[in-house]
Amino acid sequence: MDLFIFSIFFFFAEYGYTMNITEKSDVYIYGVVLLEILSGRSAVENRLREGSHIVEWVKKKMGSFEPAVTILDAKLQGMPDQMVQEMLQTLGIAMFCVNSSPAERPTMKEVLALLMEV
């Protein structure tokens, strides 16, 4: 799928949660993009089981007894521990961005500050 179709998908996924589009919608989409980068997976794909969205897949993985590192792209195995820890911190920021409650999401300015601390 091309970028335009994914943009429409994210727009409607966010709209489906809140029935309202706000500046926090951009934060949600940014979080989804971070999850794609960290996991090496597309936002929606068949291997996520039943065509689920990456946000739901990550939430399910984080709620299981599997280590959070299993969410990261397998190509990243063997990276230095410090880099893995930084990716896991970024994963936490991404999950903060995709909070189902827009009011509880950070602003993009706060996201930038959090990422600068990683």
Automatic annotation (TrEMBL):
GO terms for molecular function: ATP binding; protein kinase activity. It holds the Pfam family PK_Tyr_Ser-Thr. Gene3D superfamilies: Transferase(Phosphotransferase) domain 1. Keywords: Signal, Transferase. Residues 1-18 form the signal peptide. It comes from the Eukaryota. Residues 1-118 form the Protein kinase domain. SUPFAM superfamilies: Protein kinase-like (PK-like). InterPro entries: Kinase-like_dom_sf, LRR_receptor-like_kinase, Prot_kinase_dom, Ser-Thr/Tyr_kinase_cat_dom. PROSITE patterns: PROTEIN_KINASE_DOM. PANTHER family: LEUCINE-RICH REPEAT RECEPTOR PROTEIN KINASE EMS1, RECEPTOR-LIKE PROTEIN KINASE 2. This is Protein kinase domain-containing protein. The lineage of its organism: Eukaryota, Viridiplantae, Streptophyta, Embryophyta, Tracheophyta.
